[in-house]
Amino acid sequence: MAVVLAAGLAAVAVGCAGSGGAPAPEDGQPVASGQPAKSRGCGRDPEPGARTVSVRSGGLERTARVHVPARVRPARPAPLLLVLHGAGGTGPDFERYTGFSELADREGFVAVYPSAVNRFWTIGAGGGPDDVRFLTELLDRLQGELCVDPARVFVTGLSNGGGMSARLACALGDRIAAAAPVAGAYGDLPPCDPARPVSVLEMHGDADPVVPYEGDGPGSESSAVGFARAWAERNGCRSEPTRRRLAPRAVRLDWPGCRDASAVAHVRLLGFGHDIPGVIPRTSPPGTIFGPAEIWRFLSAHPRRAT
Description:
Layout lengths: L1 H5 L42 E9 L2 E9 L9 E7 L6 H8 L1 H8 L2 E5 L16 H15 L2 E11 L1 H12 L6 E5 L16 E7 L18 H11 L7 E6 L2 E6 L8 E6 L21 H10 L7
Parallel strand pairs: 3-4, 3-5, 5-6, 6-7, 7-10
Antiparallel strand pairs: 1-2, 2-4, 8-9, 9-10
């Protein structure tokens, strides 16, 4: 559990909330489930760098750290990636921990690091804040302030954040183009019926001591491969995946023939534990991959297809 909590242990200063743009929906008002045709933030020159935005959701003031690369331009819609921390973490801590902002600077996407209430995402029904609503309202807020490409809104997360990213892929299938959960626990996810095929990459260490690779048993939907196989069925992919080795200690399965140009893949990290590979060198043995780059390579290749 130490690795899961690592992202929540460092104190990180939180900046001032950004100004300008359209306001988020008022608390208690209905949240639109569909994605607007285009971002209202296009035409406004974004200020590059990191800031913190606030959204009032469910009677609570919620925050997210937002990193805007210098490459983002006011008239050129940019991809947006939600990056969800694990249990015990916060958004600002996870930004520093993962290195996704450095990758965003190179690749030109907006990286967003929301914070869960009490450092834990509510994945199932009841028992905590409505995090699907919060993240929907956060997307609304950011799309009002930044020039975001609605076809390239993605989500990834680790552990509890991995489970939450899988939840968003189900609940916001009309907004999320692709999701990449890492070491997620999937046994408590509610029934999943996305509005459209969503591309999914699942990444998991087969020596994970916190969220076992086999879940409740080999082949179960709570297992890493079982979770990916269930998504392949939802997306109408072929039943048998292809297999290739990404690195000496990383094997990738891909389910071909998915509907609407979607994709489903799983990366098995051989002998690896509970983390994103490559972010901490001492826990990433030689021969593994750099997880953030592999995640972005998959997500960026699978925008939402026009209908």
